[in-house]
Design a protein that fits this description.
alpha+beta, four-stranded antiparallel beta sheet, 7 helices, 15 strands, about 20% helix, about 30% strand, elongated
């Protein structure tokens, strides 16, 4: 929620257009006729002229194209009549350095007033006004219907987390292990244990010999021991199984969560379109901020998006580094260590030394 930091006012007189360049984010809240009326019965209209915002669509836009799109827009803010309507409540927000023009049509002067506001106090994205009990209302999948990935699936366990749980869900099976059947669990008979392996091999060979007849009608000798060939086939099969397991391991490691040298972890749920966000651009964002235990401490999922200038230290370091490179429509998970967040400083709703998780979506940039 914007915080008023200073009072602003201006007097607009007939025939004297007033050009305003805000020194900070500005909200105009009221327009009223002056104490002395030059025309006690006439109507006075306040007109506003401003430049239509330009949406960045390409990194290679030439200056001529930008001038064509930067068209001036003229609108009427209010009309005031002495004795009937002598003031009007307004709610107009202008960003820092966005020039606009005020002009009076009529004979009476008009006093306009408002406040300079800070839309990012204490290095927002956290502003402490979110309802911590309504965690279900801030699910990122409700912000946009085109989310390609469930936000809950984005939260992969960090190194050292949930190892015990994963160990219970997965079981490693040696590639050269023989499959065990229910019969293998039974206790073998002593006669079976005592029988030498050579005798077993001899029985098998005799069975084969009965089926093979020599030309003179006698049983053919048993075939040569193929133990060496069988061993090679088994080794080949085991090698192939090991290669498959190695490939599966590599595939599991390509989950999309990457860690920067400063400890910031990033995972893209959706890439977005157009140019990438760069330092100096004014960025408009939706976000949901959570603690490591999943508790929501702040969010912006509807209404006016949260805006800031990228790389200007208007937000925490984890945001300046984590938002860079995103595109319009892109969605991303940021896992921010304390050193890139609020450090050991305790903030309302955020304990000291907290790791922060943000699900963010880039709405616009210019």
């Amino acid at each position: 929620m914007p915080v008023a930091v200073a009072l602003w006012s201006v007097v607009a007189k007939p025939g004297e257009p007033v050009s305003v360049i805000p020194q900070g984010d500005l909200v105009i809240t009221n327009a009223a006729l002056g104490a002395e009326l030059a025309d006690p019965a006439g109507r006075t209209t306040v007109k506003l002229t401003y430049t239509r915002p330009i949406k960045v669509t390409s990194d290679n836009e030439d200056e001529e194209g930008e001038d064509d799109e930067a068209a001036l827009v003229e609108v009427v803010l209010c009309s005031l009549t002495p004795g009937r309507i002598e003031q009007a409540l307004l709610n107009l927000t202008f960003e820092e350095d966005d020039e606009f023009l005020l002009e009076i049509v009529g004979k009476n002067e008009v006093h306009l007033s408002g406040n300079y506001v800070d839309q990012s106090p204490d290095q927002v994205p956290y502003n402490g006004d979110s309802d911590e009990d309504d965690e279900g209302d801030y699910a990122l999948d409700e912000v946009s219907s085109d989310v390609e990935m469930n936000p809950e699936d984005m939260l992969e366990p960090l190194s050292g987390e949930d190892d015990d749980e994963d160990a219970g869900r997965f079981e490693e099976v040696p590639s050269d292990a023989e499959p065990q059947t229910a019969k293998a669990a039974k206790r073998p008979r002593e006669s079976d244990v005592a029988e030498p392996e050579a005798a077993v091999g001899e029985k098998v060979s005799k069975k084969k010999a009965k089926k093979l007849k020599a030309e003179n009608g006698n049983a053919a000798p048993p075939p040569a021991d193929d133990g060496e060939a069988g061993k090679k086939r088994k080794d080949k099969k085991g090698k192939k199984s090991a290669e498959n397991k190695e490939g599966e391991t590599k595939q599991d490691n390509q989950g999309g969560l990457r860690e920067l040298p400063n400890g910031l972890k990033i995972q893209d749920a959706k890439i977005g379109d157009g140019p990438a966000a760069k330092k100096g651009m004014r960025i408009s964002m939706r976000y949901v901020g959570k603690l490591a235990n999943g508790k929501v401490f702040d969010s912006n999922t509807k209404g006016k998006p949260f805006t800031f200038r990228l790389g200007a230290a208007e937000v925490i370091k984890g945001w300046d580094d984590g938002i860079a490179g995103m595109k319009v429509g892109g969605e991303r998970l940021l896992i921010i260590p304390p050193a890139l967040g609020y450090g050991n400083r305790k903030t309302e709703g955020i304990p000291a030394g907290s790791t922060l998780k943000f699900e963010v979506k880039l709405i616009d940039m210019k």
